[in-house]
Amino acid sequence: MPVKAYGAANSPDRYRWDGGLSWIAHPEESMQRASHAVGVDSTGVPVVDRGAEIESVWVIEPVDFEGLDDELATLGPVAGIVVLAGLHRRDAAAVASRHGVEVHLPATIGGLSKRIAAPTTVFEDTLADTGFRSIPVLTGIPWAEAMVFDERTGTLVATEMLTASDRGTGPGERVAVAPYTRLIPPREQLSGLSVERVLLGHGPPVTDDAQASLDHALANSYRGLLGYLGRHLDFMLKAAYVALRD
So where are the chain's domains? Predict the structure, then answer.
């Protein structure tokens, strides 16, 4: 199983949930890079009720696959592409160009705009006219990230510092703080949030028991480190090398 797969993807794992779609374009890779399409209503609020009308769709850190545009069309017109982590350019530029939209970046990674071959816009507090507010969590180089959160629906999008991938989580963890940041978990930044679902950059979306999964990840960050390293140290080192090389 490769750490990261390259080339065209044509057999993604898909996860449908009320108001959106998540996918892992290359199920064969151990990174399990995940992407999301979030439907919002006319006021920019994420749609969470089955059958509710979707006005437009925000696509988060897409990894392209054959037929992606047709999948997105079943949800609604694409309003924009979002990249939240400094190492997650992925196929954002290509998808944005096909749909004639901009790539939106939180100010935390605003400098990434120079490396994206598509029009970009940088946001400070909220994502365009949606209810997603920015929560900066990592400000280092190259690891920089902001999460976004919609408090009305409890939707948290955390694409790097939290993970749900098989090789990113340790024993008893459904969601985990990413291995290289386990000693600096985002407890303060995420305190007080009421979370109903978590969309991650690696691994499947968490659409049930999300708050409990998040609470456990933050509480277990320190004490679960040795268990994680005992199981996945080789993957952590390989994944860090691949991420920095690309």
Answer: 13-245
The vertex-20 CA angle with 3 and 39, nearest 5°, equals: 125
Give residue-wise pLDDT tens across range 4-16. 888 888 899 999 9
Answer whether 4's CB lies under 8 Å from 25's CB.
no
Question: Nearest-CA neighbor of 150 among 36, 40, 65?
Answer: 40
25's CB contacts (< 8 A; 6+ apart) are 9, 12, 33, 35, 63, 64, 65
Residue in 74, 42, 39 with CA at minimum distance from that of residue 59: 39
Closest CA to 116 of 146, 141, 81: 81
Q: What stretches of the chain show up as alpha helix (H) in DSSP? A: 68-73, 92-99, 187-190, 210-219, 225-245
Q: What is the pLDDT of residues 211-245, one digit of tens each?
A: 999 999 999 999 998 888 888 878 777 777 667 67
CATH topology of domain 13-245: Metallo-beta-lactamase; Chain A (3.60.15)
3-state DSSP assignment of residue 37:
strand
The burial of 9, by beta-carbon neighbours within 10 Å (0-12 exposed, 13-18 middle, 19 or more buried), is given as buried
pLDDT digits (tens, 9 = 90+) for 122-148: 999 999 999 999 999 999 877 899 999
Integer Cα distance of 134 and 19 in angstroms:
21
Give the span between the Cα atoms of 121 and 127, in whole angstroms.
10
179 burial via Cβ count (<10 Å: 0-12, 13-18, 19+): buried
